[in-house]
Amino acid sequence: MTTLKYPTFIPRPKEEYSGFLGTIWSWITTVDHKKIGTLYGITAFIWFLVGGIEALLIRLQLYAPEAKVLSPEVYNQVFTMHGTTMIFLVVMPLSAAFFNWIVPLQLGARDVAFPRLNAFSYWTFLFGGILLNLSWIFGEAPNAGWFAYAPNSSFPYNPGYGVTFWIIGLQALGVASLAAGFNFLATIINLRAPGMTFFKLPVFIWMTAVVNVLIVLAFPIITVALLQLMFDRQFGTNFFNAVQGGDPVMWQHLFWLFGHPEVYILILPAMGIVSEVLPTFSKKPLFGYSFIVFSGIGIGFLGWFVWSHHMFTVGLGPAANSAFAISTMLIAVPTGVKIFNWIATLWGGSIRINSSLLFSVGFIAMFVIGGLSGVTHASPPSDAQQQDTYYVVAHFHYVLFGGAILGLFSGIYFWWPKMTGRILNEKLGVAHFLVTLIGFNVTFFPMHWLGMDGMPRRVFTYPEGMGWDLSNLISTIGAFSIALGTLIFIFNVFFSTRGPKNAGNDPWDARTLEWTISSPPPHYNFAEIPEVKYRDDFWFKKYPELAHGEVSGASASEVNNDDDHHVEMPDLSYYPFFLSLSIVLILGSLLDLSWNGSWYIAGVGILMFVWSLLGWSFEPVNEETSNQKDH
Amino acid sequence: MSLIKKIKQIWINTMFHGTKTYFDLPKNEYDIPNPQHEGPFGSSLSKSISLFKKLTRSGGHGSPAFYLIIGVILSILTYIEFAIFYVESLGVLMVPILIILSLGKFILVVAFFMHLRFDNKLLTYIFFSGFVLAILIFLILMILQAF
Amino acid sequence: MSEVIAAHDEAHHNSTGIDTRKLLMWLFLGSDCLFFGSFIATYLVYRNRSLVGPYPSEILDIPLTTISTFVLLMSSLAMVLALNYTQRDKPVAGRYWTLITACLGAIFLGFQVYEFNHFVNLGLTPKTNMFGTTFFVLTGFHGAHVTFGVLWLLTYAFSCLTTSLKERAILILSIIGFLMIFFAVLMSDWLHVIPHVPFNTVMAIGGAGVLILLISLILLRKTSTPKGIAVSQSMNLELSGLYWHFVDIVWIVIFTIIYLVSAKDVAPIIGM
Fold first, then answer.
1. Which of A518, A629, A622, A534 is nearest to A570 (CA)?
2. Which residues of B touch C235 (CB under 8 A)?
3. Which of C27, C49, C225 sits opposite A245 (nearest CB)?
4. pTM: predicted TM-score of the whole model, two decimal places
5. Touching check for C8 and chain A: CB below 8 Å?
6. CA distance A256 to C38
7. pLDDT at residue C1 above 80?
8. Is pLDDT at C194 greater than 90 in this prediction?
9. Is A115 exposed, middle or buried (0-12, 13-18, 19+ CB in 10 A)?
10. Taking all residues of chain A, what is their mean pLDDT, rounded to a whole number?
11. In chain C, residues 149-208 whose CB comes closer than 8 Å to chain B
12. Which residue in C23, C130, C159 is closest to A189 by CB distance?
């Protein structure tokens, strides 16, 4: 063989080990998209609990005027970390969990295009999140808000470790998201089942594609912005230093150039999930498939040209403000198209109400409220009133919690049987939904009034007699109801794992390819790669009389699921783990350059980086067969 | 006699594909049209793509001589840029001319050295969606920051 | 066994006919456009905003940079030739052109090292003014990309274009020879990058480097690689080539925008 024999130091695991350490080692070295999806989901849910506790601390501090639960310094850290955690460590990776689990299954593929890169994404996300949260140990968590506006985050005004932790943590998370983005795009473009053209893809895949295009194009910008901020802080450059002619507004521009596409990165996966759930439970095809797809693409495109609406009060001038007001109002159109399509999907369908559908419908309702309040601050004069008040907080919680999180919960209830073979308890699910929905509205609806009444966001307390007391108290009570709802969900998960695996292949009478195989799927997913003829192909295989032409091929019952197939899957690999570790070590060493230990950490990181990058490159996908084949 | 023959042989070996002429590009796998049910847009665009391929004689990779010619053109363009820099009388015209010249170099490298001209069109769409988007949003950014 | 292979081929089923790794590379390059776009946009926004000197007109050296641009362009030409020969199963020519590519890239980096050093000597550091900040960070990240590309090419040459231990040793020898010349030039009196080296030492290192490089290059003219191996590995070279050309086109843009367009910038008439 021509390739170099590379010294590996650690023997490559060929099959999964048993025992406690062996199990951990097999999870560390896994390249299976389903196991990585599970890891993503569990990790993101743990961060969800952490971010939720931070939210509860915020609400406790604000429950009454002049409360003294948190000091002002700690309060700044808590709200910054709440925002950063929820966006980068919860909603994005929870979406990534669904991408990992569902995309290859819906495409009819055996794995993502680059399984080891996929593992690398997960481990970098995990280590990046840990790095970001290590700041709590130093007692100096990031405290400049999730957007870290420049003069406030520059070294002279914020000399602690906090913002540096934020920068290096986000760099690691950016690397993870970029790697995952390239991977999923390559998967969607190249690993579709035969016959599955782009316009036969399930809508969830379409939304995944749009999200990953946004990730791939938006994250380089934040990478550059973070690099510039880091150079300013660590090496004394002048990017945002007004004394030397730098411009802090430039940070805002670069941040929101990334930040606005990021908003759609957060919401579009939930939209994709809802577009899968609604047709299934109303037994109708999705109303206006191409409208939904093209409005998704339209949102993804227009999302690039609205970023300055976050900066209406910066003083960009009337011309710029008007232009961005128009583009912002324009983006409500494709979103509205989707809402109407979802409603039309439900209209006249034979609807089966269960927790997954309830969460989806809740998503639509809450997202409409959030979208409407969003349109109100598309207008600059109105935004000047609302900027930095609780009205904005209410708006983005309606779209991010009422939108993204409810949509993701809908997906959890929908695909849980496919992932585990067990259906989540329906009564507990409905209870979870009701408590969460009511608690959510109790928490965030009063914030509209608070904001209109002038209560600014990010203040750690407020004086008595402003008329804000009652609304804040109600809001705090609501926050604890959401916590109760989450506890019901956790109980539901543990309760359901005790039940039998009785979900079957297709518990919901659903439409897409993942339901043709057993639950949970075998490690190779499809014994035979399916041929696709129609959009919602599985549905027409089950009900051929509904198809427009004649249907050939296997019906659902004939799908072959013998475990006897010799399907070759990529071998396990530990290099992704060490490559991620090395990147995070190198980033971590940038924390404090004046400390000598940093150089040792960086040295170890670089050595590990070179070793694992080379090892990764020279490692064949499969050990045994690499000699027999010429690739 | 044999020396001339040998030189001729070396010339042919380094400059030609086999015994073909400079611009006869070899057939390769990308010439075969995508299957009807696959490809980026299903069968909808396949006819126009095949027409386009016919019109532009798209083939595989160029011959070394072809790349040498591109390299010479690139060098000449660089020299013109360098020379224009010292022409004071151009005034405000200098910047647009320089940008057009560098765009020409950019396209030559991307189209021929990076084989986009010979490859699947999907790759061109991917690359230029990033490139065009970068130009659009950063132009807007610069306009915003200019005031 | 046939069933195994059939299943394996299905796993490598491919919807568009594009090699998936190449697709990934292009996605990465499309994304990298935004990376360099952000830096270049930052540079342009901050152009003419330096409050103190040195200003670009006092410091940029257009003829020198034209030469380094030419070097990088020629490295792109060498790269495409390397790929062309490798794909046509001419591993020796492919190997020479790959080494020439890496070598020209290293020479470009040498120009950059000289330029940075020269600018610092003239009083322009990343901390000095807005020009220094934006210039050093942008060209520095470009240089980092070139460095990675050189290392990638050398790794490729080492692992895929040489097969026997002997060839690899010779390859390493040629790299050592090149590095000796490289550092000898940097040490020389007229560049001032590595100062205070006696002339005789420089000549000795440089001469030995030339000798080692020549001998090893001559020894590399024959290969024991069987037919077809280089072709089967050529996708790796194609990927590194795509990366290399991309770095080249970024430099085309940087050369125009930072050097040619703004080399006449003097102190702004009105401060910010």
1. A622
2. none
3. C49
4. 0.90
5. yes
6. 13
7. no
8. no
9. buried
10. 89
11. none
12. C23
B136·A304 Cβ contact <8 A: yes
C-chain CB neighbours of B123 within 8 Å are 18, 22-23, 26
In order of A346, B79, C114, C115, C122, the CA distances from C197 in angstroms are 81, 35, 16, 19, 21
Instruction: Give chain B positions within 8 Å (CB) of C248.
Output: 109, 113
**Chain B nearest C-alpha distance from C236 (Å):** 14
Between C17 and A246, the more confident residue is: A246
- Measured between beta carbons, the chain C residues lying within 8 angstroms of B67 are 77, 80-81, 84
pLDDT at C12: 53
What pLDDT shows up at residue B56? 39
Backbone angles phi and psi of A389, in degrees to 5: -115, 175
Give me the residue label for tokens 């290099």: A575
Q: What is the rounded CA–CA span in Å between residue A340 and residue A371?
A: 13
Cβ neighbours of A238 in C, within 8 Å: 127, 129-130, 133
Where is average pLDDT lowest: A202-211, A436-445, B23-32?
A: B23-32
Q: What average pLDDT does range A450-471 have in this prediction?
A: 91
A389, β-bridge pairs: A456
Residue A238 in contact with partner chain C when CB distance is under 8 A: yes
Name the amino acid, one letter, at C70. Answer: F
Higher pLDDT, C174 or A540: C174
Q: Do A190 and C126 touch (CB under 8 A)?
A: no
The domains of chain B are located at 1-21+60-115, 119-147
Range C156-168 average pLDDT:
83
- Give B133's contacts in chain A (Cβ within 8 Å): 217, 304
Q: What is the mean pLDDT of residues A349-377?
A: 93
Which residues have a Cβ under 8 Å from the Cβ of A582 and sit 6 or more positions away?
A604, A605, A606, A607, A608, A609, A612
pLDDT in tens, A497-541: 888 888 888 899 899 999 999 888 988 888 888 888 888 888 888
Is A220 an interface residue toward C (CB < 8 Å)? yes
Q: Is C22 on the interface with A (CB under 8 A)?
A: no
- For residue A304, give the nearest of B42, B137, B147 by CB distance: B137
Q: What span, in angstroms and rounded, lies between the C-alpha atoms of B29 and B35?
A: 13
The residue written with tokens 């009564």 in the block is: A427
What value of ipTM does the predicted structure carry? Answer: 0.92
DSSP conformation letters of A138-184? HT----STTTT-HHHHSTTT--SSHHHHHHHHHHHHHHHHHHHHHHH
Architecture of the domain delimited by A31-518+525-557: Up-down Bundle (1.20)
Which residues in chain A are contacts of C91 at CB distance < 8 A? none
Total Cβ atoms within 10 A of residue A31? 22
Does B12 reach chain C within 8 Å, measured CB to CB? no
Candidates C18, C33, C87; nearest CB to B123: C18
Token pair listed for A33: 């998209």
Tell whether A631 is within 8 A of chain C (Cβ): yes
Q: Using pLDDT thresholds of 50, 70 and 90, give the confidence band for residue B68.
A: confident
All structural domains of chain A with their residue ranges: 1-22+569-631, 31-518+525-557
Calculate helix-pair angle for B121-146, C20-45, nearest 10 degrees: 10
Inter-chain CB proximity B144 and A198 less than 8 Å:
no
Residue with tokens 């190779």: A524
Angle at A459 between CA A457 and CA A463, to 5 degrees: 115
Q: Which tens digits make up the pLDDT trace of B81-106? A: 999 988 888 878 889 999 999 999 99
Q: Say if residues C16 and B122 touch (Cβ distance below 8 Å).
A: yes
User: Using a CB-CB distance cutoff of 8 angstroms, which residues of chain C are in contact with residue B34?
Assistant: 16-17
On whether any CB of chain C is under 8 Å from the CB of B68, the answer is yes
Q: What is d(CA A220, CA C141) in angstroms, rounded to the nearest whole number?
A: 13
Q: What is the average pLDDT across C77-88?
A: 89
